[in-house]
Amino acid sequence: MKIAVLRERREGELRVAATPDTVKKYAASGVAVCVESGAGLGSAIFDEAYAAAGAEIAPAAADCARDAGIILRVRAPEEDELPYIPDGAMLIGMLDPYSHRDAFSAWNRKKLSAFSLELLPRISRAQSMDVLSSQSNLAGYRAVIDAVAALGKAVPMMMTAAGTVAPAKALVLGAGVAGLQAIATAKRLGAVVSAFDVRPAVKEQVESLGAKFIEVPAAESGEATGGYAKEMSEEYKNKQRQLIHDTIIKQDMVISTALIPGKPAPVLITEDMVKAMKPGSVIVDLAVASGGNCPLSELDQVVVKYGVTLIGYSDMPSRVAVDASQLYARNLFNFVSTLLLPEVKWDDELVAGTLLTKDGMTAHKGFI
Question: Is 367 in a helix, a strand, or coil?
Fold first, then answer.
């Protein structure tokens, strides 16, 4: 068995799917690893480090992927990369299947077994493979750092001879992994933090981090299968809009993380809300790649509208690429070593839950 680790070609993607640490582990399992030259540079990993760990270094993607049984990726391959990937190989990464349905036919023509790790069932046995949690955790952290960098005021309370500097106020919309880390980071920096989520079950987690949980008084719950959020009724949305409006006008920073799997991101911050915010305040929209929680956010841009800075980076974990790659590579190693080597456990629920295509056919029931 040979594993190929290809350089990511999407603009702004700095992560890599294997590190020298995981290369050593694959080699110890008797698996050969080939790394495309330069694949780790965005994460401060040089070819020499991979070679010292036991990897072969190939000058180009075609050379690296030749005869490989497993292709490790961060993102789905671009169309012009597919000719390099051997027919019948296993393609593993965060393949973003909801946005890449049109790629399934090309993967099927090559009879690829494509595994999308964002679809991993949320069960305890899968925690060490959970790419969404590891990457979202870093995204939540970096979102606060970017918000503070764009904010024209200090975050913690400061007592000076010239007077007192009031602490910054931060609102986090969505209390999943990214949201909870955003809350923790903002609190560590000294902000006064509030948080909103449609799932009442997360109230205790929010409050345990020292934030105030704001909630819509309603019997309706936003909890869906697997701990994800679901779409709410129009009555709830109307109450939600008023609650967020009344809260957001007092904030200096807003970190918005709300997503619904397979659907456009819910609009939580309207144009009227942005107009009502304090001049100089900042919004970081982590849902921008799915349409955004604010319609004024622009993909991969930082813009100022009505005096408010909107940050719309679509690949926030890449802004912490060194740690993001380390965690992601370990997630992949745990998945591959547990479920695919020495042979694939096709009947395992984790394999079935992530398998998109196999033997020239779409295999995942959610995409058939």
Answer: coil
